[in-house]
Amino acid sequence: MTSLRDAGMTSKAWPFVEARTLLKRVEKSGKDHVLFETGYGPSGLPHIGTFGEVSRTTMVRRAFEVISDIPTRLICFSDDLDGMRKVPSNVPNPERLEQYMQLPLTSVPDPFEKYESFGHHNNAMLRRFLDTFGFDYEFISGKEYYESGAFDAVLLRAAEKYDDVMAVMLKSLREERRETYSIFLPMHPESGRVMYVPMKHVDAKAGTVTFEDETGKEFTVPVTGGNVKLQWKPDFGARWASLGVDFEMYGKDHATNTPIYDGICRVLGGRAPEHFTYELFLDAEGHKISKTSGNGLTIDEWLTYASTESLSYFMYQKPKTAKRMHFDVIPKAVDEYHQQLRAYPTQDDAGKLNNPVFHIHGHNVPASDMVVPFAMLLNLASVSGAEDKDTLWGFIQRYAPEASAATNPQMDQAAEFAVRYYNDFVKPTKVFRAPSDQERAAMVDLVARLKVWDGGLDAEALQSMVFAVGKEHAFDPLRNWFTALYEVLLGASQGPRFGGFIALYGVDETIALIEAQLAA
User: Fold this and answer.
1) Distance between CA atoms of 384 and 386, rounded to whole angstroms?
2) Strand locations in 43-137, DSSP E?
3) CA 456 to chain centre
4) Exposed, middle or buried by CB within 10 Å (0-12, 13-18, 19+), for 30?
5) How many CB atoms lie within 10 A of CB 351?
6) In terms of Cα–Cα distance, which of 435, 465, 463 is closest to 448?
7) What's the sign of the alpha-carbon dihedral 46, 51, 53, 54?
């Protein structure tokens, strides 16, 4: 383990870079544990971006545990006392929620009619998915944190330092917004709504705030016990101060607020945590993924077509680069994940710590039993018209007789995913084209060579033969030959190594496929 720790102290993998910064911080402060936090606004159903934040935070936590024995904790904090300011479009009968505007999310009825409130429902969806991935975390409900009194000390300090906290906030606000802004959002004693109104008076000694509602009626409420919550920016900094957070990551859209969060944390007596800002996830059109609009992939949608580990792999890759989250990225993520699994046992400690699968699995990296790539399975499903995974297993076992559903569970799961993905996304968009004269001549030549082929199902030998056909028929660049095979035979613009495809699908079957498409 010592050599692994040494490798972690020099690793260029981004989680280790963050972990080393964090280690310096904690060693300087003398804290007896490290607190990681990730925040969640339950205004809509959890999406992949939500998962990505927890997943990536866990990767930094895992890296930290390689280089240090200092205990760690991860808190997932839900701001579920926030008022509902917009009705999500991706819930049943959204119009029914219009009457509950400005009520805390934990006071809005659950449109799915499964939990006591909309906030409780979305919290449950978040926890369910985090549990599916086996994250080690502590869940904190903002409602419970405020109402239990756990936040009281910091709220009283916010009342005491009201002018100082407001000074931090006001620098970032437009002039007209400054007139009505308050860091405190009182709960209306009669309607229960979250009130976005200026404070008439803040009594630090009594620990109360006074405000008027829209009718002009005046109320005075304590800042403690859940009678008041903080606006979301002050809430960020106050939470850091209250909990003693050491590390939090968030999206690029929060980056400009970092000085505000840090400043409020310091005013309230805390030390601002280490930050990591990641680029945003985009949908297929390049728009930011949003919980309320429901665009982009959902958590459940990814898991309908691929394993949880493939999603974790996608999250690890280049967090500082904006990435589109749509269905087309799934096959690539699956195959690259398994490539890294196969490489892991052969790597030294430095290589292992730079391998994404370490950051997904820690010290318990499994072996890959994928004898056929996922992309190849999709092409196999395409040409065979597979409606179930058993059809694919017929081809897989001819190619790899020792493989079976029992001994290759990852392969079995992938075969099922491939059939589902093919039927939902590939089949509806398949477009075959006729070959050009050059392409037709090359394909006739390929058929002739396959008919006298005696090299068995050697994928590399078959690939070399296909390669030779392309060269002899003067394709320049040579990739145009393979593109032609994909577009004419598979109805796709790209595909697997064609020699591997022949080995899997079968020589006779490939001959029949080519002849059928040439005759079409």
Assistant:
1) 5
2) 72-78
3) 43
4) exposed
5) 14
6) 465
7) positive
How many whole angstroms separate alpha carbon 196 and alpha carbon 186? 8
183 burial type by CB count under 10 A (0-12 exposed, 13-18 middle, 19+ buried): buried
Contact 220, 247 (CB under 8 A): no
CB atoms within 10 A of CB 405: 16
Reported CATH class of domain 2-281: alpha beta
Indicate the CATH number of 437-519 among 1.10.10, 3.30.70, 1.20.1530, 2.40.50.
1.10.10
Q: Which tokens in the block code for residue 27?
A: 């060693």
CA dist., res. 294 & res. 321, Å (int)? 22
Angle between helical axes of 118-132 and 48-67 (0-180°, round to 10):
50
Distance between alpha carbon 115 and the CA centroid of its chain, in Å?
Answer: 25
Residue 355: closest CA among 312, 411, 412, 410: 312
Burial 312-350 (b: 16+ CB within 10 A, else e): bbbbbeebeeebbbbbebbbebbbbbbebbeebeeeebb
Start-end of H helices in 373-497: 374-384, 389-399, 409-421, 437-451, 459-472, 479-485
What single DSSP character describes residue 326? S
Per-residue pLDDT of the chain (520 residues; tens, 9 = 90+): 568 999 999 999 999 999 999 999 999 998 999 999 999 887 766 667 778 899 999 999 999 999 999 999 999 999 999 999 888 877 888 888 999 999 999 999 999 999 999 999 989 988 887 887 889 999 999 999 999 999 999 999 999 999 999 999 998 888 888 888 999 999 999 999 999 999 999 999 999 999 999 999 999 999 999 999 999 999 999 999 999 999 999 988 888 999 999 999 999 999 999 999 998 777 666 667 665 555 567 778 888 999 989 999 999 999 998 877 778 889 999 999 999 999 999 999 999 999 999 999 999 999 999 999 999 998 898 888 888 999 999 999 988 999 999 999 999 999 999 999 889 988 888 889 999 999 999 999 999 999 999 988 899 999 999 999 999 999 999 999 999 999 999 888 877 789 999 999 999 999 999 999 999 8
Closest of 230, 214, 209, 191 to residue 102, by C-alpha: 191
Q: What's CA 376's distance to the chain center, in Å?
A: 25
What DSSP state is assigned to residue 206? T
Handedness of CA 311, 314, 320, 322 (dihedral sign): negative
d(CA 374, CA 69): 39
In one-letter notation, the amino acid at residue 313 is: Y
**Half-sphere exposure (Cβ direction) of 333: Cα atoms closer than 13 Å:** 23
Helix axes 14-29, 48-67, angle to 10 degrees: 60
Q: How far apart are CA 362 and CA 504, in angstroms?
A: 33
d(CA 438, CA 473): 7
Q: Contact 115/124 with Cβ under 8 angstroms?
A: yes
Q: Tokens 């050599």 map to which residue?
A: 3
